[in-house]
């Protein structure tokens, strides 16, 4: 068979015809930036650290090399992808299945809150690729139902979210159960110290580094407001604007789990119908809280960034960043929780006395039109 028949070009990337057919069927015609920069090093067997957001095409960036590397005849786990949530786990599993459809690659999703027996049965049928959340993966390892001794590729997807949700110790334990001679890739929107430590401990020193920043755009149907408010006045400011706008449902973002719990407790003492959402809660508790919020049974949902990425809450008219977003990427994701499917929405940001420089940086990167709101709290007239 001629080389031209065996391979097909995906931009500048030459792919086997089985994978090329699959991605063409998926509607991929030109590689995204993260795909163009990551697929080559991953196919070459290099470790890779990628700073990239959801929506940049990173699943195919690691999915294509995984599918190409897997031996479909080998009825054992050869690649492991760890994800922070079951929603992302299912999404990644489906995309890898579609990429591997013409190579007969078996991909299994492993996550909590679903039947363990069905997942174990799928593993026993001979999965080559496992996509899972850290808690369930570790549980199955300890039960002897998931063996990683022949894994040659490990992907950590959205590592900063796994850190935020309290999974980082589980991730380190899982990595220590994998063979030393393996390829490891980590994708994360941000690179806090704990993530850099994982890179240091579990990846080659000469790992490839790539940074991909998506275009910073906020939805046009979102009205963006900023309130300059002192830290000690934020609770009063939140209650004032809640009364002003007549919120029926409001998503409020804080940086930390402790901050979320404290604000939720304060609002509850003020007689507000409030719930907390963060990585310290079980998957079942998070699902129940979100269901109650969607149904209108909870008015104030106070959350860490675990709620800002990948969760689709329909008809959410208001979002408040009680703590200023860590960066422009986070700002865009938080704003994106409202005004979905072309609907109107309002995103409000509180900027404290220590946040002015950070806010200027976010405004510069995002370039959005933001109105300055006024508070009666500060009206001395």
What does this entry look like structurally?
The chain is of the alpha/beta class and 381 residues long. The chain folds into 2 domains: 3-211, 3-Layer(aba) Sandwich (Rossmann fold), CATH 3.40.50.300; 222-378, 3-Layer(aba) Sandwich (Rossmann fold), CATH 3.40.50. 39% of the residues lie in helices and 18% in strands. It is built from 15 helices and 16 strands. The strands form 3 sheets. It has a 7-stranded parallel β-sheet, sandwiched between helices. It has a 7-stranded parallel β-sheet with strand order 12-13-11-14-15-10-16, with helices on both faces. Strand 1 and strand 2 form a beta hairpin. Helix 7 crosses helix 9 and helix 9 (168-177) packs parallel to helix 10. It is globular. The N and C termini lie far apart (84 Å). Residues 1-5 have low confidence and may be disordered.
List the defining traits of the structure above.
single chain, globular, 381 residues, 15 helices, alpha/beta, seven-stranded parallel β-sheet, disordered N terminus, Rossmann fold, 2 domains
Quaternary organisation of the protein chains: single chain
Mean pLDDT: 87
CATH class of the largest domain: Alpha Beta
| Number of structural units classed as domains | 2
From the 3D structure, determine the CATH topology of the largest domain.
Rossmann fold
What's the main sheet like? 7 strands, parallel
The CATH superfamily of the largest domain bears the name P-loop containing nucleotide triphosphate hydrolases
Give the strand content.
Answer: 15-25%
Strand order of the largest sheet: 5-6-4-7-8-3-9
Total helices: the number is 15
